[in-house]
Amino acid sequence: MAQARRYAGGVDGNRSLERGIEILRAFRPGVDTLGNGEIAERTGLPRSTISRLTRTLVNSGMLDEVHAERAYRLAASVISIGHAMRTGSPVLNTIGAMMRAESAKRRLNVGLATADRTMMVYLESIRYSPRAALRNVVAGQQVPMELTSLGRAYLAGIGTAERERLLKLFRRRSAAATKTLLADVRRSISAVERDGYCAVSWQPAVLAVATPIVLDGLPVYALNMSLQNVERSDALASEMGAYLNAFAAKCKAVLAGREPE
Amino acid sequence: MAQARRYAGGVDGNRSLERGIEILRAFRPGVDTLGNGEIAERTGLPRSTISRLTRTLVNSGMLDEVHAERAYRLAASVISIGHAMRTGSPVLNTIGAMMRAESAKRRLNVGLATADRTMMVYLESIRYSPRAALRNVVAGQQVPMELTSLGRAYLAGIGTAERERLLKLFRRRSAAATKTLLADVRRSISAVERDGYCAVSWQPAVLAVATPIVLDGLPVYALNMSLQNVERSDALASEMGAYLNAFAAKCKAVLAGREPE
DNA sequence: CCCCTAATTCCACTTAGTGGAAATGGCTCG
DNA sequence: CGAGCCATTTCCACTAAGTGGAATTAGGGG
């Protein structure tokens, strides 16, 4: 059986690099510092291997040592690479300004996200606040794909094969409310196909609507609008949905017309 | 001479991982996409090696393929790691809110940065704007260490050995105005030692002052304040310097008192 | 001061990675 | 529409680079 053999000759990639990236990924909001021991535990790799890889990451400037607790922390380099990513994103570059304007005009939150494995990650999330001076722009935050309008819009935008692969992962993840949850996800996907958007109230008193943005040769994105401190109501959802559809149409028009690189 | 031999047995780290990181670093604002060829050129590595490493980075979710131009782009994962970095930064967590407040109170830009090799990278840069609704917060942007108040404050905050190492690199970089520039840098460092801050007008009509923040067990940071659209004047510089010193003192007090992790 | 825990270095083994050469695949121009 | 020309990917023999268990060292607490 020609199961592509991992790591010999190189058709599958590079093991050490893959492991090193996995180490970086082990840091997430909530785990500020990690020691070699914890990393070894999480990754299941021998401690000596981790020791060498973390040393390399320190030398490359991706990790800072925290001597006091014999641990590591993500270094500032990672945000400069993150900044380069945002700077180079053709979608964000094209519609970022429009998103800000729309947030101000409609007085609600506007966000753009795409997938990172089974999470959605915001390229930009503009939090509208009546006290405009406190308006907040966040990038890089992750939200679960299966629970959010953003994630479900994304699922509606990608191909069936990839979608089924992801749904299988969600089933594995939350053994609990699986049946209901998956049905709910599929309902949202149908909603996108029917209405152009889906509405989800993931967090209490937050109503969000989202729609996919599918462009040739680029990852699938999702655009959302949301409002805090509201009761979920169908009327509100369809009002926001209409705004979102209109805005997304405008974005797609601009994106289609942008200079091909 | 026992020059530590690179890459055998492993005391020096892992070559493939180092190379992979270097590939990620090759993307920067201005170079949105890179093909294997260009990467090979920039890094001096054989194309086959690059081909394998970029494949791995795609599989790990750090790069997206751009089929149309047979090239790669940084993927969204990098900003989620960047977000984790900011989230986990004890300094930013402690004084971020204070920085925002100070920017509003003093009506000027406030920034926090640290070094990434020979550049300073903003953990947060709060751009004050009279039209408060347009206020902008940026993270990850890089500015040259030797030309900015931020960088010179940083140089004043680190140890002599590291400082001299960096100064040597600057000399190599800009063969031109080297003599004057280096003298200027040293003057700024003395200013920090004397006044607590240094003032630099790197970009036309922007006046900036900065001061180092040195904490045990953490990288050295630099805090700055700046104003656009002003004539450089000593009076203004010392006014801003006074504000900065006062604010930095407040920050240091809070930072000293924070729960040790 | 000495023990105990955890990280790091050592080292023999061998697999995983390397890079030159060949093959493939896309694109352009005739 | 086909031939030639890039650039990129795959192949493959070679071997050095990486691995991970065992020994060692370094911290931190009692």
Describe the structure in your own words.
Two copies of one chain form a homodimer. Chain A is of the alpha+beta class and 261 residues long. Chain A is built from nine helices and nine strands. Chain A has helices at 15-26, 36-43, 47-59, 77-88, 90-106, 149-157, 160-173, 178-195, 234-257, and strands spanning 63-66, 71-74, 109-116, 119-127, 136-138, 142-144, 198-200, 206-213, 221-228. In chain A, strands 3, 4, 5, 6, 7, 8 and 9 form a seven-stranded antiparallel β-sheet that branches. In chain A, strands 1-2 form a two-stranded antiparallel ribbon. The longest helix of chain A is centred in the last third of the chain and has 24 residues, at 234-257. The termini of chain A are far apart. The mean pLDDT of chain A is 90. The structure holds a DNA duplex (30 and 30 nucleotides).
